[in-house]
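Hi P.,

Sorry for the delay on this. The queue was packed all week, but I finally got your sequence through. Input first:
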Amino acid sequence: MDYYKVLGVDKQTTPAEIKKSYRKLALKYHPDKNKGDKASEAKFKEISEAYAVLSDSEKKQQYDRFGSTQFRQQYSQEDIFRNFDLNDIFRQFDFDSRRGSASVRSGMGGNGGASPFGSFFSQGQSGGCGGGGCRPSATKGQDMTYQISVTLSEVLNGAERTITLRRNGESHNVSVKIPKGIEQGKKLRLKGQGGGSPDGGPAGDLYLKVEIEPDNKFSRETDDLVVEKFISFSEACLGTKVEIETLEGKKFMVKVAPGTVHESRLRIKGYGLPTGPMGDRGNLYVKLGVEVPKELTDEQKKIVEQLRDCNL
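Then the structure:
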């Protein structure tokens, strides 16, 4: 779904014009004006989802950067509608949740951060109440959350995993795409792979919560990587060169300037992790440690004593 096309705007459209376009479309397709019209109901859902993203500067930036497919892989519907107040829009053109359609009203209460549209925005919702009364909609299955571990190499390159799920006592395999630049705690949604419905409705969704595995060489700081390298006291004083290997295995000889102090950092530009699936890479930082030997030979001790006598 192209959110810009849904609202009839483009990337250069101002927030005020985006809001104006949404208000016009929402008034046209609102369920109270189109009772029983499933096409209008579906259109109303689309424009509301589009506005929830394009009216939020952070979500809009992510959508513009990654595109529709990647954005919807990384943002669940709950994420999309979080902090989105539909009531505020309705009040401006004299729609209020207290006297709106039953399907909209059912999801507008205090829901602790869940989608403000409740059952109206879930699959299987009937299109309002006709002359014969409202038919109860089929219940959506329960959403489920599993944890999935991801290595830094998979964060760098992206990956495709096959995981085994059990449903109704049977196992089946599901392919999961891990996008480049995935962050700790992010959730990947597998639509319809959650719990089954008790009355024939759609299955719930499966959310895979990402856990980044610790690496024995690199640590992560947002989109940057940090690697530690130890040098001797004399190398710190006189300067040296050290060999550094990047996450993908490329090697560099990095110059260490004379007089380098403990925990100084050297930067290798562009060898960190990607900023999202299509973003630029961060940097690799070499954190230098100056080693102090625990034991000295007699000769080394004499040399160090001479250095001390020279105020070094």
